[in-house]
Structures are given as C-alpha cells and as structure tokens.
Specification:
This protein is of the alpha+beta class and 130 residues long.
C-alpha cells in the first residue's frame, strides 16, 4: 500500500482517539490539516487502512461504521443511548456457548468480534436519576 500524505494524516488523527470515531468525525479533524481533502477520500483511505490490517473497522449494531486505531482483536462496549463505543479490558470473561465445529466446518473463519451493549457509565447514572 502506497503511503500518501492524506493516508498519514488520517492515521495520525485516528491514533489520537480512544472513542472510536466515525468517518465523518475523522473527516472534520483531517480537514483542519488538509482543507481540500474530500469525505470520499477519507472513506477510501479508512477502508484501505482497515483492509491492510493497520486499523480496525467496527460495524457495530445501531449506527455508522466506526474506526479503532488498535487493529488487534478485542471486545467493545456500545451504549444503546448515546452510541459511544469503548474498548473493554481483556480480563472480562463471560461463559459463551461453544460453537459446534460441524457448524463451521465448510467455512473459512477470518476472525471474531464480540460486542457488549447496554448503558455506558454516564447514561446508566442518568437513568438512575430519573
């Protein structure tokens, strides 16, 4: 993959985030540094960076794609009220049912994603006040 100034700036902007921004959010920040960049260019480069394994594209329930600067498999928590997304520490373990190996025997598994969802700390506190 060819390295361009646009791709470098997009990656730099994404790496400043812990909140898993959308392409639109990244575009707003990148435009401060590259005023002539288009939203389409940002989308294309995010897709290229994701395909190259340099970032993670999150296609979580209930909204726009979000992007994570950490390309390694890890779990996320999505708030159903404010749509915030955060990384979860690897120490969180729950008992998930095992998948029967016959159920995936004729498939090629490329990876897994695990999304927890509910109310983030802030939204949970607001719900308790009401």
């Amino acid at each position: 993959m060819r390295n361009t100034e646009q791709k470098s700036v997009i990656l730099e902007v994404l790496q400043t985030h812990k909140d898993h921004p959308t392409a639109d959010q990244i575009y707003s920040e990148v435009r401060e540094r590259l005023p002539k960049i288009s939203l389409g260019t940002v989308y294309r480069n995010l897709e290229k960076l994701s395909s190259a394994g340099m970032i993670m594209k999150l296609e979580l329930g209930g909204g726009q794609k979000r992007f994570d600067p950490n390309p390694h498999e890890h779990s996320h928590f999505r708030c159903v009220t404010c749509s915030s997304v955060e990384d979860l520490p690897h120490q969180i373990k729950i008992n998930l049912p095992e998948i029967n190996s016959e159920a995936i025997s004729n498939r090629i598994v490329l990876g897994t994603t695990l999304e927890y969802y509910g109310y983030c700390e802030e939204c949970a506190a607001k719900r308790q006040l009401n």
